[in-house]
Structure formats: C-alpha cells, structure tokens
Fold this sequence. Notes:
Order of helices and strands: HHHEHHHHHE
Radius of gyration: 23 Å
Number of helices: 8
Amino acid sequence: MKYTVVFLIICVSCFIAIIGVIASIIKQNDERAEFIIQKTCTNTLCIMFAYLIFCVVEQSYNGLNNAEIDGINPFIQLSILSIVYLIQLVYFKKSMEIDMENRIRFLRKEKNISQEDLAKKCDVTRQTINAIENNKYDPTLALAFKLSKVLGVTVDELFIFDQ
Length: 163
C-alpha cells in the first residue's frame, strides 16, 4: 500500500508540474516552448523511473525477487513507463524537425578537401561530417561557425533554410 500511495503522489505532482509548465508556455509562441515541454516531460519520467528502480532494488535487497507492489509488478510498471517515454521522444522528435539543407559537400569538393581533413580541422570525426552532409545531423552553432571558417564562407552561405 505504501508504494502505491508514494507512486500516486509522485505521479500527481509530476502531472501538476507538467500542466503548470504547459499553461505558462502556451502563452509564448516561439521554438523554445516545445523544447521546454519536452525537457519537463523527460525530467518527470526520469523521476518516475528512479522511483520504480528504487522499488525494484529495495525488493531485491529484501529478498522479494518477483513480489508485486500492491498487485502491480514494478517491472511491468517500468515497461509501461518505458513505452510512454519512447512515444514521447518520437512525438517531440517529429515536431521539432527542421528542413535545412547545406552546401558542405559542394564547397568541400570545390576546395579539394576530404571529409577526413575537414573533420580534423573542425575537431570532429569524419562520420560527423558525413552525417551533416547527408542531412542526418544538424551541427551545433559552434561547429557551424568552424565549418564556415574552414570552407571560407559565412554560415548563411553554408546552410539553406527551407520554410
């Protein structure tokens, strides 16, 4: 019984926190809003994960290997929470995608620079350069500036934003 009460208190507290954040962010209309909501949801789910893992560890410590917490196995609770978390990640990843092309491959080949050489000059791996060229990864702002400096163009000339 004590586990269920604690779990419900944590769930309700997290739910109230999420509603509060969402209510305050709805007033804002910028790209940070979804990011903040995603972080809040992630932190909330992490708290719930931590509690359930604590329950499992405590049960193992007390020798209750397959015992249930008030009729619900904590492993099942962890599995359900994992599924919710994965759904949340997929939803936010799709909602935050931005269509942006780049001219890195074209400029690199124009200057006869290999992916390996460009990667060394920018302090990243060749795989990172490859992923950026193939639009699989958006570089950080610092890396975008390094790339533009090495390729001799501005960041605006390097990346093309499709609206």
